[in-house]
Protein: Sulfotransferase
Amino acid sequence: MPRTLSSQITMEKTPSYFVTKEAPRRIFNMSRDTKLIVVVRNPVTRAISDYTQTLSKKPDIPTFEGLSFQNRSLGLVDTSWNAIRIGMYVVHLQNWLQYFPLSQIHFVSGEKLITDPAGEMGKVQDFLGIKRVITDKHFYFNKTKGFPCLKKTESSTLPRCLGKSKGRTHVQIDPEVIEQLRDFYRPYNIKFYETVGQDFRWE
Structure:
């Protein structure tokens, strides 16, 4: 990390930290005062998005259904597949709570980040203890991408949008497969809501 003055905040983004077993201990040893921000979204949608992204790079991978289940007729979900395992948020969170109190972890709703980016960013700024500088003036919705884009400053004409790998149309998945995965994630989601004190309404 770069040297930081007491009046500054240094931020770093690595999505895999949340699911990496060694990460909480290493970050705690570096700075136990670190504030953590985690973006979460409906785990079923997240898994489909993950698969869609992988499929664009490796078109010959097995089907989503084939990777999701050890035995679909018995409803046995394959939790060794990363796309499924990542969405078991409460499992990963337990690892972090061994080192950091919940008061140092802020959860951003991935869904609301799309529908109300300024509202979610307002909560992030409050959590960091900084003035609300980023407001709705800084966003516009890109209909092609299906995501909001960030205007660098209020007067800027060149917005910053998500890269080419984001906003792809998801692969069509059998509704029954989606329903089975919803059933699988439900107890994990409920425990997650209870642990963080926030209902993300993924049902």
Remarks:
- The chain has one domain: 17-196.
